[in-house]
Each structure stands twice: as structure tokens, then as C-alpha cells.
Design a protein that fits this description.
Helix content: 40-55%
Number of helices: 7
Bound molecules: uridine-5'-diphosphate, magnesium ion
Number of strands: 6
Length: about 190
């Protein structure tokens, strides 16, 4: 893709046939509204449903799509890492495919980036569609993580964030194989 693309959107996908069309539609609407160039990098993490066929069909009509296709499931963090590695944008946004991260927020992230911030992340106020157990364990996880490390990893955030190209390049240079991307960003 062009060297000078403004935004890269990295979307890890694993068996997302139920939502991937809607995700693509909303991301496209949001990114077109910027009036700037973008690439939409889908990283297929070994899906065994129709996800991959669906993305291939979108990409036939849409040159802004890049599809990275893993031969098997490697996990969310590896998928994100591959997408970031491949990205060219001056700003890189990582977003989940299941619409738990609202694509429309990307516009606010971009605004902050244009004000000069190198990392912009969104914090979850609600965890829609998740069980009480998942919410509770997620909360415990972040508190535990907080107690374990001196690095200030923001609480209750996923990997939904915008990174300036400089930060993304630094991340791409890290050699950690067992990655926890949001911790590395911090
Ligand atoms: N995902 C992935 N590989 C996996 C599991 C998930 O690429 O092995 C993707 C998934 O399609 C979604 C994102 O990573 O876009 C987050 O996954 P999930 O919603 O299961 O995580 P949670 O919401 O529990 O953090
Ligand atoms: Mg999710």
C-alpha cells in the first residue's frame, strides 16, 4: 500500500461472521468521514467460519482493505502485533471486531492525536453483553495486574487505542514473544 497513508486500522478477527459485515460498514463510514487516507488491516486469526470469505468479498470492491490471514489460531495479542507490524499509517488504531469498541470513537482519538498526543486509549465504562462472571474476573484481572507492576497500565482498557507511528515503530522493535500489548504500550 501507499507509504503515505494517514491512518491504519488494525482489526483482529476470530470467528466473527455474525458481526464482521457491520464492523466493516461502521469502520468504513467513520474513516471516510475523515476525508483522509486509511488502510483497514484485518488480521484473520485462523477463523473457521465464514469470516475470511466475507472479508475477501469486501476487499474485492474496496482497495483500502488489507487482509493478513493466519494458517491457524495464534491468539488476539499475536494478531494485533502482526497488524501493527504491517501497518503504514501515521497513526495506527487497534480495535476489536466484535463492536464492543465503538468505531465512532476513533474520530475523537484522531482529534487528540492531532492535538499532539502519541497514545490515546478508550476506557470501558460498560462491558456490554458480558456475563457477571466475566465482568468480575476482568475487574480482578486489572486490579491484580496493577498490584504486580510498577508500570502504570490504565485500568479497564482493552487494546482499543491509537498509537502515533513513532510509538508503533518502537513497539514493533520489541522482541517479546509472549506479548501483552496494552502493557507494552504503557
Ligand atoms: N480474537 C483473535 N484471536 C483469538 C480470540 C479473539 O483475533 O484467539 C479477536 C476477536 O475476533 C476480537 C478481539 O480479538 O476482535 C477480542 O476478542 P474477544 O472479544 O474474544 O475478547 P474480549 O472481549 O473478551 O477481550
Ligand atoms: Mg470482545
Amino acid at each position: 500500500m501507499s507509504q503515505s497513508v494517514q491512518y491504519s486500522i488494525v482489526v483482529p478477527v476470530y470467528n466473527e461472521e455474525a458481526v464482521v459485515h457491520e464492523t466493516y460498514r461502521r469502520l468504513t463510514e467513520v474513516m471516510r468521514s475523515t476525508g483522509e487516507s486509511y488502510e483497514l488491516i484485518f488480521v484473520n486469526d485462523g477463523s473457521r467460519d465464514k469470516t475470511i470469505d466475507m472479508i475477501k468479498a469486501f476487499s474485492e470492491k474496496d482497495p483500502s482493505i488489507i487482509l493478513l490471514d493466519f494458517s491457524r489460531n495464534f491468539g488476539h495479542q499475536i494478531a494485533i502485533t502482526a497488524g501493527m507490524d504491517y501497518s503504514n499509517g501515521r497513526a495506527v488504531v487497534v480495535i476489536d471486531a466484535d463492536l464492543q469498541d465503538p468505531p465512532e470513537l476513533i474520530l475523537e482519538m484522531i482529534e487528540k492525536w492531532k492535538q499532539g498526543y502519541d497514545v490515546v486509549y478508550a476506557k470501558r465504562t460498560k462491558r456490554k453483553g458480558e456475563t457477571v462472571f466475566k465482568k468480575y474476573t476482568a475487574k480482578l484481572f486489572y486490579r491484580f495486574l496493577h498490584s504486580m507492576t510498577d508500570i502504570d497500565i490504565p485500568l479497564d482498557t482493552g487494546d482499543f487505542r491509537l498509537l502515533d507511528r513513532r510509538v508503533c515503530d518502537q513497539m514493533n522493535n520489541l522482541q517479546e514473544r509472549n506479548r501483552f500489548v496494552r502493557g507494552l504500550v504503557s
